[in-house]
Structures are given as structure tokens and as C-alpha cells.
Design a protein that fits this description.
Length: 218
């Protein structure tokens, strides 16, 4: 790994929420935060080399943040896509926090979560797609495993996660175009279904949420 400079290492705190990550007690919380960081980088159009550099800086900073005795080198340069970076970095963080659970079903659940967050922007993401095309699982079994572990139906979990990520992305950049926001989180580009869902969950439209954020910053 080519280590970043001190300034580069410090700059990654703009994209990653270290406190939220450190307080995570579930693997999906980690996946959410790392996916969010990747979406921030994608939203500003960084090149693959630039994203790689920021993730390398994050690894150095995180290792120091949780204690050098937990340092485990991770070769970001060997990861060939944004999706695999999300999974590899999230699993590495989970190891540094010692929150992995053992057991066949827990391992299967982690794979399901990996698929969800590495395909977060896929508008076709649903139980049928994951079970049939990626994990080759029975759909009913998938649904039972998901509810048993997450205490929520898959569709409700995905909706909740996507709307929460939309809120966090708007907090990061209140001027982000709705079209870009929907693309990043897996809603149709016209934004109508997203706006309807956002209002159902948050009690206001994305535009109203954005304006509230701007008023708060004044």
C-alpha cells in the first residue's frame, strides 16, 4: 500500500463518520456508513484513483483511531470496483471492532447484506433478484432468514436504508440534484416515486427537507 500524506489522511474525515462507525454494533451499520462514503465520492465525480487514495487514507486514519494494535493492512489497490471496496472495507472494519458473529445463518446473513449494499443503486434490487440471480437461494427461505435476523421485512429495510441515505447525502450536500440523488440510492430517475416515499417516511418532500437544512445552516 502507498500511504497517504498527513493532509490526505486528515481530509477523509469529511467523507467518513468515524464516531458512527466506532459505535456500530451491527455489520449492516458499517456497510451503510461505508456505502454512504462511497456515494459521496461518486457524487462529486472523483476518478477511481482519487477514490482509492481517499480510502487508503481512511484505512490509515481508522487504524490509528481504533488503536494500532488492531491494525490489519488492506490492499485497496487490489480491489477492482466500488462495490467490492464497500464490502472489503466494511468486513475489515467489522474485524477491527470484533463484531463478527459465528454460525452458518449469520454468515449467510452477512452475504445478503453485502449484496444489498454493493447493489444499493440497482433499481431492480428485490428479494427475487438477489435470491435468483446472485445468491441462488429459495425466496421464501431468504425472506425468513432476513426477518429472523433483521426483525424487518426486506422491502421495509431497503426502503428505510435508502431514505436514510438520501437524508445523509442531502446533509452532506444540500444542493445535490434530486436526479443524482435518486441515481445514487436506487430509485427511478424521474424522482416521483422517490419523493412520494421520502414524504411517507419523513413527513416532507426531499425539497422541503433540503430547505430546512439550508435554514439550519444560516
Amino acid at each position: 500500500m502507498c500511504y497517504p500524506t498527513q493532509n490526505e489522511a486528515e481530509s477523509n474525515t469529511y467523507y467518513f463518520d468515524f464516531d458512527r462507525l466506532k459505535s456500530s454494533d451491527r455489520y449492516d451499520n458499517i456497510l451503510f456508513e461505508i456505502t454512504l462514503a462511497m456515494k459521496k465520492l461518486q457524487s462529486i465525480g472523483l476518478s477511481n484513483d482519487e477514490k482509492q487514495r481517499i480510502f487508503e487514507a481512511f484505512i490509515v486514519t481508522w487504524s490509528s483511531y481504533v488503536g494500532s494494535e488492531k491494525l490489519k493492512l488492506l490492499n485497496i489497490g487490489g480491489i477492482n470496483s466500488d462495490e467490492s471496496a464497500i464490502t472489503e472495507v466494511s468486513r475489515w472494519i467489522a474485524e477491527t471492532l470484533n463484531i463478527y458473529e459465528t454460525g452458518k445463518e449469520k454468515e449467510r446473513m452477512e452475504k445478503i447484506l453485502d449484496v444489498i449494499y454493493s447493489n444499493f443503486d440497482n433499481t431492480e434490487l428485490n428479494i427475487q433478484y438477489i435470491a435468483k440471480n446472485i445468491l441462488f437461494m429459495n425466496e421464501d427461505y431468504f425472506g425468513r432468514v432476513f426477518i429472523r435476523n433483521m426483525h424487518l421485512k426486506f422491502s421495509a429495510y431497503l426502503e428505510q436504508s435508502r431514505i436514510e441515505m438520501a437524508k445523509r447525502l442531502l446533509e452532506y450536500n444540500p444542493d445535490m440534484r434530486i436526479a443524482m440523488l435518486t441515481e445514487l440510492i436506487g430509485y427511478p430517475a424521474d424522482g416521483q416515486y422517490f419523493s412520494k416515499t421520502f414524504r411517507k417516511v419523513c413527513g416532507m418532500t426531499p425539497t422541503e427537507y433540503r430547505e430546512n437544512l439550508k435554514k439550519t445552516d444560516i
